[in-house]
Amino acid sequence: MCQRRLVLSSRCRHQSAMRGGGGGGDDDDGPWRVLADAAAELASVLLAPSSSPDALADALERATAAVDADDEFVAALGFHRAHRAVVRLTTHPSPDVAAAAGDLAELCARRCPRGVPFPSVGGDASVEPSYARCDVGRRNAPLALILRRAREDPALGGGEKRRVPNIAWPSAIVLARVLALHPALVRGKDVLELGAGLGAVGMAAAALGADAATLTDVDDDAVANMRYNIARGGGVRVRRARSRRREGEAGVVDDDATAAAAAIASRCVAKALDWNDARDVRDVDGTADVVLGADVVHDHGMADGVVSALARAMRSPHGVGVIVNPAPEHRAGADRIPELLTAAGLVFERRVVASALLRAGLEEETEDVKLDVFAIARAEERVPRLEDVGERWFEFD
């Protein structure tokens, strides 16, 4: 979704009517609450003057394991003012406590998330990460990805400003839902996502059965952030309506979530790719059965690189591509996509997303934004048949 390192002001996003909140829910801070609660328990031991050496050593070892499992635990410890306690304990009279504190301090310094100081004074709510909830499943097989956003530059001031890769774009939510509607498109295939941003589309493809999903973006912070989210299985959550649960199905929801998270963690990789760099594009030549892109053209000149990379990455002769992009009246440069696809020797079907189900839960300000879907192949008979995206209502079970 992002090829340039851009920042959209609230005014620009309002004009384009495409600031995505996540598709089906507000931002979700559940992962942070879990970390913060665990850090609070350990911090209470590390900060208490009455804690015994054994209790301190145990708390330090548990904190080390937690940081090793999740970098954000460094921020959680800092939020509860435990950083300086860890540093102070490196000089504790007990050799076990001092050694454990030294190990933890060294690990925190190495694994500290970008934008989070170590050691910090603590108590600063600004260290809390932001998460986007992306509802990408079907009605009867709901799937939500809870994706951490890369921390913003404090100079941006937060609030209404957000960098392009940190937005859960409606085009990405819709494309992921199209895949959920047509899982055979990616099942057993090698998938490449261009301009992935948060990576929701590629992760959804993995959860739906893709053999491998390569998520790419030109933004190094976005790539690092995708790797974090991939390692955590995309923060998958699965909900099944009570009325739809079968008798004796108590564990099926957890099983579904576990399987989807394992697929994301094991089948997804994130890498940097600049589609305007010939060397980068050469690295993906003929590597993908399916190439995906959401909101990849949002400025003049971007369509050339997108189409070139897509055409080269698609395996011959069976490779296909699917792009979901706001129409030209909403995105500069999008008018060139059809002519460039034709010039590249590709055939395509272009449809407008009319389905209310595919757009359900997206922000109201996006309702009037027309989304184009391009189903692309090298031969007419191989073009993915996505007619239902243009239907107002259809079965989405």
Strands, helices and their partners?
Blueprint lengths: L6 E2 L1 H7 L13 H18 L5 H17 L2 H8 L3 H7 L5 H17 L19 E5 L8 E5 L13 E2 L6 H12 L8 E5 L5 H8 L4 E6 L2 H12 L20 H16 E5 L5 H6 L6 E5 L7 H12 L6 E7 L10 H7 L3 E6 L18 E7 L20
Parallel strand pairs: 5-6, 5-8, 6-7, 8-9
Antiparallel strand pairs: 1-4, 2-3, 9-11, 10-11
Helix pairs in contact: 2-3, 2-4, 3-4, 3-6, 5-6, 7-8, 8-10
How helical, in percent, are the residues?
25-40%
- Number of alpha- plus pi-helical segments: 13
What is the rounded Rg?
23 Å
Question: Which series of helices and strands comes N to C?
Answer: EHHHHHHEEEHEHEHHEHEHEHEE
Content of β-strand? 5-15%
Main sheet: strand order = 7-6-5-8-9-11-10
Task: Specify the overall morphology.
Answer: elongated
Please, what is the average pLDDT? 87
Distance between the termini: 28 Å
Sheet with most strands: 7 strands, mixed
Low-pLDDT windows of residues: 2-22, 241-252
What would you note in describing this structure?
By secondary structure, this protein is of the alpha/beta class. It is 37% helix and 14% strand. It has 13 helices and eleven strands. It has a seven-stranded mixed β-sheet, with helices on both faces. Strands 1-4 form a two-stranded antiparallel sheet. Helix 8 (200-207) links the parallel strand 5 (190-194) and strand 6 (212-217). The protein is elongated, with a radius of gyration of 23 Å. Mean pLDDT is 87; it is low at 2-22 and 241-252.
Key features?
alpha/beta; seven-stranded mixed beta sheet; two-stranded antiparallel ribbon; 13 helices
